[in-house]
Specification:
Blueprint (H helix, E strand, L loop, with lengths): L16 E2 L9 E2 L54 E5 L6 E4 L31 E4 L19 E5 L2
Length: 159
């Protein structure tokens, strides 16, 4: 990703498409994308063939193609994703289809989690109502994360 301002983005990654993003959440479709590293309330990511389409609220509004995210602050994350696909996300929540993803740690504007092949049943706060496969939320607080996902798939999240 080339640039990200405020709390957010709007991206289309490797055959991925952002459909709708509202509140502190998204509505995206991602495929074959990989986040290398994200720390604090910001990111340090490496994305391939990613394109940002539209993102609003917690701040996204960008159009990127084959770009790289260097840093993002506020309402931020720290994630490592691989071969994951986001299907739909609304409000402060998601509805995602991820593959080979592993959550490791989340800090900054909020979360502090160690997830691996776990499942998220329900999350409140920034408001999630999620049905995730092979992923587990250990702790989530605030409006942000710092995660590493591997071998896990998000099926549906509404909030």
């Amino acid at each position: 990703m080339v640039e990200i301002a405020g709390c957010s983005w709007a991206t289309e990654l490797a055959d991925a498409r952002t459909e709708e993003i509202t509140g502190c959440g998204w509505a995206t479709e991602l495929a074959d994308e990989r986040v290398v590293e994200i720390a604090g309330c910001s990111w340090a990511t490496e994305l391939a063939d990613a394109r940002t389409e539209e993102i609003t609220c917690c701040g996204w509004a960008t159009e990127l193609a084959d770009e790289r995210m260097e840093e993002i602050t506020c309402c931020g994350w720290a994630t490592e994703l691989a071969d994951e696909r986001v299907v739909e996300i609304a409000g402060c929540s998601w509805a995602t289809g991820l593959a080979d993803v592993r959550m490791e740690e989340i800090t900054g504007c909020g979360w502090a989690t160690g997830l691996a092949d776990e499942r998220v049943v329900e999350i409140a706060g920034c408001s999630w109502a999620t049905g995730l496969a092979d992923e587990r939320v250990v702790e989530i607080a605030g409006c942000s994360w710092a995660i590493e996902l591997a071998a896990e798939r998000v099926e549906e999240i509404a909030g």
